[in-house]
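[audit] Reproducing an earlier prediction to check determinism. Same input, same settings, fresh worker. If the tokens differ from the archived copy the diff job will pick it up downstream; this log only records the rerun itself.
[audit] input (200 residues):
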Amino acid sequence: MRISTRRALPSAWRAAIFVPVMALTANMAAASVVWDWNYSASGINASGTFITVDSPNADGGYLITAITGSRNGEAITGLQPTGTPIPGNEPYTVDNLIFPGPGPQLTSHGFGFSTSGGNFSNPFYADFLPEPGYLEFFSMPAAPGDGHTELSVQFSAAQVAVPEPAPLGTIAVVLALGTVLAIAFTKTQRRNGRSGNPLR
């Protein structure tokens, strides 16, 4: 039995046009900003890279979505989930927001991360102190006793790569591809309509 594909073909053509356009849109929506960051104090040296969303919130803060780097030679292994505290610093949750400055670049919640040594860090801006400044709460769950410190640090961060809009050339190529596919489909339909032969 012969099965006509006349109905299935238009869907295939629509997919051929739709997929590249959606891929371009998704790529544009996934834009992000790269930051270099560091903080230090006597006996503390931490630095690395943030990845944030490309648009700030209403207060001007950029949400950190990923982190790399090291603290005192221990590799950073992960970002503390937003809205949760690092182990040992309950109930103080992190908001993982970074601000370009001038002014404080962290909130009183700050950001959090884990290290390869099984430790955790939560740098934040202590605006509640008589002399506001940056502090790091450092948690060592495996250490004897409480294994925690909270020390003053010098913190800074700066954007190093800002996303750019998709090049006009890229958009033009995608639109041209969709146009060519649509024209080809129309011609195929007309030719088959004149011959009366079903598509197979």
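[audit] rerun output stored. Observation attached for the diff report: The longest strand covers residues 148-161.
[audit] end
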